[in-house]
Here is the input.
Amino acid sequence: MNSEQLLALLSAVGHAQRLRVIGELADGRLYVSELARRLEMSRPLLYMHLDRLEKAGLVVGRLELSEDGKALKYFELAPFELKLNVATVLAALQEDRSAAPPEETGDAGGAVEPPAAKGPNDPRGTRT
Here is the structure.
């Protein structure tokens, strides 16, 4: 897991409504309309929260047909264990460094300097 994935996970669980979604899905899968009724939330707002949870890998959505031919979107919890400590953060940062080209990690050698001032009216050449 890199830092972007870690932040997506933390952001997903860092919202009261998304925690409520996880709580409702803890007993088993539900289709969106039923989940929205239980949470007293509009379906568009619920879909936004479910999207964040799904992108973080916490829930899985599946489209299924009911007996009467209606398409129902079911969501269920994905198996997950959230453990956050210094080692988790350091491992995510190390993953970033190992995946990034050298010029993005700052290891390319030499500091990057801003371009020289263009003239007397350029604010980069004045001090206040």
User: Anything to note?
Assistant: The longest strand covers residues 59-65. Strands lie at 30-31, 59-65, 71-77. The chain is about 45% helix and 10% strand. Confidence is low (pLDDT under 50) at residues 107-128.
